[in-house]
From TrEMBL:
The keyword Transport does not apply. The keyword Transferase applies. Belongs to the YkuD family. This is L,D-transpeptidase. The active site is at residues 76, 92.
Length: 117
């Protein structure tokens, strides 16, 4: 089963299959006032967010939300791609929409997520 390791200092999400690194993605993380929580979690749900209407704006969660076992936190896309690589969220992990869609195809409910400083 795949697993996700997130490095806040490197602002990267790493996807492993066993001990083999499969993918690495850039991320946005929580602001100083709303830091991303360190710890071990699992993905508990996956919710696609299509455009609100044809050609309409994206949700703030981009095209996909993957909720973590810590209530209110998740890994998701963004409608602000310039925020990737920065400390800008309310604690969630932000990804480019193409990256969160790729990750979402590779992981399922129950995938372990470790967030480290």
């Amino acid at each position: 089963m795949p697993r996700i390791d997130i490095s806040l200092s490197r602002r990267r999400l790493f996807l492993y299959e066993g001990n083999v690194l499969i993918r690495s993605y850039p991320i946005g993380i929580g602001k100083i006032a709303t830091r991303t929580p360190i710890g071990r979690y699992v993905i508990i749900n996956k919710v696609p967010y299509p455009y609100s209407r044809p050609g309409g704006p994206l949700s703030p969660y981009g095209t996909l939300w993957m909720g973590l076992s810590r209530p209110g936190y998740g890994i998701h896309g963004t409608n602000r791609p310039s925020s990737i690589g920065k400390m800008v969220s309310r604690g969630c992990i932000r990804m480019f929409n193409k990256d969160v869609e790729d990750l979402g195809r590779r992981v399922g409910i129950g995938t372990s997520v470790t967030i480290s400083p």
